[in-house]
Design brief:
Blueprint: H1 3-58, H2 63-66, E1 67-71, E2 77-82, H3 84-107, H4 116-120, H5 125-128, E3 134-137, E4 153-174, E5 179-196, E6 199-217, E7 235-238
Helix pairs in contact: 1-3
């Protein structure tokens, strides 16, 4: 066998070995890196969601506005219902705020962020202006804490997909003697695509945020109008798709 043939065979073997090594590393590394990426995507989304709920609901809507409580002449609670007009208004504003702010982060338009101060205390502005929410060190693949920050950085981006949905839920229970305790929550769910240079995955981010607490004199009724002990009607806002 000539030297030329030997070099060709050696080159082919090296290429095959490199391909198999990269496939092995990719198969092993992708779940680990994606786990870090998912965690950061949910963390960022939670910051935006909580700030939007705080601004558009907690700071503006009182617990008295949220409910329509009907009592009989003896003070017993006959029915508890949501104030549909108020609920739908603030849910729409909140959901829209979440979508706009996440879309601005996706585009890297940080100056347009409604909650820029809160986001920039946790995330780097220069990265966000490139649409990067986080950079995972490739050293995390090794699984050694000492080497966790070793190696090139892998950028993580997000993209909104699907619809954003929100509703209000309430939990009603007896409180003390002849009192009802009503706890109100906003439930908001969005779908995001977490994007790595070599891999992407769609995840759902769900948040349940307490927004009001009210104590009402009267025994907790066995019936709640429109299923107050479950959920209000959902508000659905479609995520805009890029052309």
């Amino acid at each position: 066998m000539g030297k030329v043939n030997l070099l060709i065979i050696s080159f082919i073997l090296v290429v095959i070995c490199v391909v198999f090594i990269f496939q092995y590393i990719n198969k092993k590394a992708s779940p680990i890196i994606m786990s870090y990426a998912e965690m950061e995507a949910k963390k960022l989304s939670s910051i935006i969601i909580n700030k939007a709920v705080s601004k558009h609901i907690t700071e503006q809507v009182s617990s008295d506005e949220l409910f329509q409580i009907t009592q009989d002449s003896s003070g017993e609670i006959k029915a508890i219902d949501f104030n549909a007009a108020i609920v739908n208004k603030f849910l729409t504003e909140t959901t829209n705020s979440v979508q706009i702010n996440l879309r601005n982060i996706e585009k890297g338009d940080i100056d347009a962020l409604e909650f820029a101060d809160s986001v920039l205390t946790t995330y780097d502005k220069e990265d966000l202006e490139k649409g990067i929410i986080y950079e995972v060190s490739s050293g995390v693949i090794i699984g050694n804490p000492i080497l966790a920050n070793v190696g090139p950085k892998i950028p993580v981006k997000i993209s909104l997909v699907g619809d954003a949905t929100s509703n209000v839920s309430a939990e009603v229970e007896n409180y003390g003697i002849n009192n009802a305790l009503i706890q109100v929550y906003v439930n908001l769910k969005i779908s995001e695509q977490v994007i790595l240079p070599f891999y992407k995955k769609t995840i759902e981010v769900e948040s349940k945020i307490p927004v009001a607490l009210k104590i009402v004199t009267g025994t907790v009724p066995s019936y709640y109008a429109n299923g107050l002990n479950q959920n209000s009607p959902s508000v659905v806002l479609p995520a805009e798709t890029e052309e």
